[in-house]
Amino acid sequence: MFEGPFRESMIKLSKRKGLVRIRVHNLRKFTRDKHRKCDDKPFGGGPGMVMMAQPIFDAVESLRKKSPDSRVVLFSPQGERLTQRIAGRMAGLTSLILICGHYEGVDERVREQIVDEEISIGDFVLTGGELPAMCFVDSVVRLVPGVVGNPESLLRESFQNGTLDFPHYTRPRVFRGIEVPDVLLTGDHDRIETWRMDQVRSKTKKLRPDLLRND
After folding, report:
1. Of 4, 13, 36, 133, which cross-links 28 as Cys (Cβ 3.0–4.6 Å)?
2. Are residues 12 and 107 located together in one domain of the fold?
3. Assigned domain for 150 exists
């Protein structure tokens, strides 16, 4: 599942530049039975399967031998909602170990003993933590210094300052009868900056007023 997204765009460039290193580990390599089993039925009954503690513990402990300071992140519905602030904090860390749950989740002892932080990408349920992990990696990698060509672009993005971004336009000047706002064609950078800031405030107030309340 990870091969495609991790070989494209910013992640591809960041690996090529040697700015980040990403490795995907198969939990089956850390199992101890001949069937390489990673999940089992839940104690107490009920539907579905639960990821077993032993393969996850062994995997994390093996990885931490090489990187003792690694922060362990589990993707789960009960985690803190992923935000730009969290992505920025994670981008400043040297090493991360990401655990992707599956089925009904992971054995609770994993949460209690080896997980440093739980993260969710929204109030909905997915089959597993692979897709959240991809979103997480993409959001974090692009904030690593040197990944994005023009660092200034990171400072003006949505959520970076607790607001949405301003509208963007490019050629042609008129498309299907809709014109680019005149102020953007004036060359007056002060007027353009004022217009953009007005757009930021009005768009955020209209579409995401919760961001202003949180701010």
Report:
1. 36
2. yes
3. no
Q: What is the CATH number of the domain that holds 198?
A: 1.10.1270.20
Q: Is 76 helix (H, G, I), strand (E, B) or coil?
A: strand
Name the 3-class secondary structure at 199: helix
pTM: 0.90
Q: Are 130 and 100 in contact (CB under 8 A)?
A: yes
Burial 138-174 (b: 16+ CB within 10 A, else e): bbbbbbbeebbeeeeeeeeebbeeebbbbeeeeeeee
Whichever domain contains 19, its CATH number is: 3.40.1280.10
pLDDT digits (tens, 9 = 90+) for 117-160: 999 999 999 999 999 999 999 999 999 999 998 877 787 788 88
- For 171, the domain range is 156-214
* Integer Cα distance of 120 and 127 in angstroms: 13
Q: Is the dihedral angle over the CA atoms 11, 74, 117, 122 positive or is it negative?
A: positive
pLDDT digits (tens, 9 = 90+) for 67-102: 999 999 999 999 999 999 999 999 999 999 999 998
Tokens 């690996």, residue?
15
Residue 61 in domain: yes
The number of residues in the chain equals 215
Is residue 106 within 8 Å of residue 98, measured between CB atoms? no
For residue 189, being part of any structural domain is answered with yes
Residues 137 and 69 in one domain: yes
| Whether the Cβ atoms of residue 99 and residue 115 lie closer than 8 Å to each other | yes
